[in-house]
Amino acid sequence: GEEHYNCISALHKSMRGSDENASLYWLARMLEGGEDPLYVARRLVRFASEDIGLADPLALTQAVAAYQGCHFIGMPECEVILAQCVVYFARAPKSIEVYRAYSNVKECLRMHTGPLPPVPLHLRNAPTRLMKNLGYGKGYKYNPMYKEPVEQDYLPEELKGTDFFKERET
Description:
- Helix 4 packs antiparallel against helix 5 (79-91).
- The longest helix has 16 residues, at 37-52.
- The protein is mostly helical.
- 55% of the residues lie in helices and 0% in strands.
- The two termini are 35 Å apart.
């Protein structure tokens, strides 16, 4: 019932708050109460990107490995795998930079009126001669061929200069 959601919320918030003891408590309470370890593991995968993100990009690898480990061996053996992951996450630095930026992109898309801007011609795929003749891909600079960073626009003209990583006004 409701306690299922209360406990996962407590686990999530304890990890976010870097409290490894509370994190282990809520994990054990869930697992010892019969919670599906794969449910917990799926939530850890989400937490890795939502709350830790770029502060420790290996957190996602840890979460996926924990999920796979739980899938392979099941309970009760996988409890230590989840415990290791939960403590790793509680101790990890936190960043919601990507989470916020992606939310800003979604807001931009939702707030847009009319048709969405077209993909700039130089970024379009040109697998046929007709598409090449229409200018698809023309002027695209293939970055790996250059020693220095390439000056090139990647957003549609209407969004030029937009930075989704900056805080948006609501």
